[in-house]
Amino acid sequence: MKKKSIYISIIVVLLLLLIGAAWYFLHNQSVDKSSLPTDSNAVEYEGDKPTNRLPNGQKGIAIPGFDTLVFSANQRVNFFNPDSNDCLFLMTLYIDDKPLWKSGYCKPGTGYYDIELSEPLKAGEYSTYLKVQCFKEDGTVLNGAKVEFDITVQEV
Asked: What per-residue string of b and e applies to 83-104 under the rule 16 or more CB within 10 Å gives b?
């Protein structure tokens, strides 16, 4: 009887060690996360570069906002990822809740001046928003924003 309880104790200890080793291995192995591909169409941003600083040395993501955008013959925009950020932006332009343009992964300090919409817009005013999704280079999802504004399309 005494011999049987010793064997059972040894088996239990070995099982606990095996479970512990498996847990350690699964939680401490380095994960090979490939980095997200950045968009080669994003150009170095040359517009105003306001310094966006948070109080008391806090860290955060700077997301530019605006009230209106005017389109004429060329669809000139000013969508950019401030160089103060340490994340990638993925931007989608929605007009009347329909996605009409999407960027690639835009690295800090780059942006877009010219975009091509998936559908032409008639002259007029539209309610719109730019959905900005933020990611670390390894693909980790960060906070994002919905920047609401109006678009005025002018006749050529």
From this structure: bebebbbbbebbbeeeebbebb
pLDDT for res 55:
52
d(CA 108, CA 33): 20
Judge contact between 62 and 108, C-beta under 8 A.
no
Strand locations in 24-123, DSSP E?
43-44, 68-71, 76-80, 88-95, 98-106, 110-114
Q: What is the pLDDT of residue 17?
A: 77
For residue 106, give the nearest of 72, 144, 70 by alpha carbon: 144
Global confidence as pTM: 0.67
Q: In angstroms, rounded to a whole number, what is the distance separating the alpha carbons of residues 134 and 144?
A: 5
